[in-house]
Amino acid sequence: MTGWVVRGIGMCLINVAVRILLGVAVTQWPLHGSQLRWLGMAAVLLAVVVWAGLDGIRDRRKNPDPEYGEDLTMVWLKAAALGGLAAGLITWLVQLIVDFSVGQNSLFFELTSGAAFTILVIFIPATISVFLGRLLAGRDAKKKLAASDAKREKERHDRHLVGAGSASAATIPAQEPQWSGDNSDTEVFRAVDPDAPEPRGNATKHRDNS
């Protein structure tokens, strides 16, 4: 079943149940009929507001863009029409079978004036509740989106700082060790070349010794 059929049947059953309970209560406490009727009206309105409000919240969470949301206005208009007509018919049948003091109205009245009143009681609060539900869900979505953007911006900033620090460390040239002290020649003995000619003075000295 489609959504408007489910809602129409649900609101029909709620209206019939409230009218039957109201008839029983008025029979038991006839002096409080006015208060009991207002209480029954409040019960129907509460059911409509909660149901339609949840529809608005779910639709906004499913479709953040309002242009792609479901047409809940038509859904609840069809549901109200079905609920009003079905509730009037069932109530008329119930009063023929059992006397619950739900009113001795004709079938024509139940399907015209009675149904029209029930349709208005369902449709107008449902439209307002859908709007409020979407508004509430939209605010929550904006808050979550802002928090998510702030978190991503912080992570991007942290990664930028880490990357800049690594780049700075990579561009520092390695310094060669510097030796302190004088630059004097540290050679102690002269290197000996075996192929070099022997100095003349040494050769003369060797001949004299021999």
Binned, the helix content reads over 70%
Uncertain segments of ≥5 residues (pLDDT<50)? 203-210
**Beta-strand content bin:** under 5%
Rg calculated over all Cα atoms: 48 Å
Q: Give the topology string: H per helix, E per strand.
A: HHHHHH
Report how far the terminal alpha carbons are from each other. Answer: 135 Å
* Main beta-sheet annotation: none
Shape: elongated
Q: Provide mean pLDDT, rounded.
A: 79
Instruction: Provide the structure class.
Output: mainly alpha
Number of helices: 6
Beta-strand segment tally: 0
Structure description:
The chain has helices at 3-28, 33-62, 72-97, 107-111, 113-171, 200-209. Helix content is 74%, strand content 0%. The protein is elongated. It has a domain at 3-145. The relative contact order is 0.11. The protein is mainly alpha-helical and 210 residues long. The chain contains six helices and no strands. This is B-4DMT family transporter. It comes from Rhodococcus sovatensis. Residues 147-210 are annotated as: Disordered.
Summarize this structure briefly.
This protein is mainly alpha-helical and 210 residues long.
From the structure above, extract its key features:
210 residues; mainly alpha; disordered C terminus
What's the structural blueprint in terms of helices and strands?
Elements: H1 3-28, H2 33-62, H3 72-97, H4 107-111, H5 113-171, H6 200-209
Helix pairs in contact: 1-2, 1-3, 2-5, 3-5
